[in-house]
Specification:
This protein is 9% helix and 49% strand. It is mainly β and 547 residues long.
Length: 547
Amino acid sequence: MVFSPLLVAALLPIAARAANDWSKPCFGECNWDLTSGTGSGTVRVVGPQAAVSDITSAAGWMIMDCDPNVSDQDIRLVCSDPDKGCDHIYQNSAAGTLVRLPKTCGSTPFALVTREWVHQDQSIPASKRSSIVRRDGSQPVVKGMSLATNFADVDASAQNGNVTMFLMGSSIPGVAGNFTVEPPTGTGNAKRGLGSWIDDTLAGLAQVHANFLGDFNKNITGSSPLNFEKDFPLFDKQISCPQKGNVPAFSGEVKVDLDGKVDGTVNYGVAVAGSVIPPEISEFGLFVGLDATITGTLGLGATLTGIISTGKIPLFEVGIPELDFPKIFTIGPTFSVNAEATASLDANVDMDVDLAYDVKGMQLFFPPGGNSQAGSFTPGDSNVKLSVSPNVTAHGQVAAHLIPSLAFGISAIDDKVKATINLDLDSDAALDLSLTAAAEASTSTKGNDAGTAFGGCVDITSGLAVTAGADADFFSLFKKGTSVTLFQHTFDLFKKCFGSTSARRAYTGRAARAALLARDDGVACPSSLLGSVASVVEEKVAGSSLV
């Protein structure tokens, strides 16, 4: 793809042109800076001289009637100093010109003039007359202008030319002045396309963030905190079981709980290229920097049999400060935590398994492009405790997930196009159990070695999957379902087979989980005597032994 000289000219070095200078008029090109306590950014628009102009005091205009909280409106204004360039807006016609607005007029940085006329009300407030500069002492003509920000609905024939837009934003306040990546200039580089420029820009932005944050030091202000801590039941059901054959009456229960904690920080940045007129996003890129520690304990106690499936359970949600370039582009992140549990149980089971992962220096670039995803994903120490009924033939599968997520909602062109990019950190603990009532099995145990008390196999695992994906199309830049995997691994915490060879062969393993869970027949009282539980394992697994 070859880009026009106008577009290439639009992408001049940001470092030299990032600041919006309110003392200089915007003629043919303009910058507007986003400055707040929660983020920073720069948007630049450029077009033919007749397409981009200015109605601030820098261009000699004085606005008298304008609501600062309304985007589309009719205003009154007067040329207070012709020497500053009031007539620039009339190079073609005022109608069809994109203009910069002063901070006190309108809720957006730019608006399109759709109509201009001599206003019926020619009065000028006394407080403003002293600001008018006229050599001949005459009173200037008060004009009326209709301003519109719904750029998609503007008649193309009423516009004075296409207006290119270029945008960079950061979740860190004060970073905008440190943007130093230069977009492509010259024919050879332009042919590489804006896609390469987006990749280069995001890589540079990631480096700026690293420098600001002390290489992702979570103690330095700039990243948004991610904090969650809660002990919550995922499933709890009790049944009063009547006597049935040799099974005495008892009160049965299945309870799954998860004590979870997330502690981390996130920072992000965006780069966008396209046009305001006509409204279009031609390139987009998102960068996310993340540090997080995920810990938790899965607890299971079951004296009933059957299937449970909780579905995804929302536990927590909080908004993260957004970046808003009004009517042009907005990104609003949300941090949430969800949990989920599934189980198929044919035996009495008591289990506690720790989840522990440290995510350090993770870098996500979306959509996937020339930059490499980065980060270290390290398992921590995990305590493992399991007791089950010996001398029974039973299969059991248990899985619980603690899923911290970041959802980056993006919208462009006055919310005409929307999508969400989700970053999920799915940590899980799982048990696969296949027991056989082996004749030679003993109910006694010695220490932590249950080899003579059971027939069959036990597999306890923990895992972490870090993935990102989109939930909708966003222009032609990415499709719904576009995804990237940053990390995915399952760690064996404890895996052992007991008893005779035939008992070992009876082990069904992980492949049986889906078939068993597909039964989905709920929980019920056992049809046979399960007996008391006996310890299979109780030990601490060092995270260093898993990598």
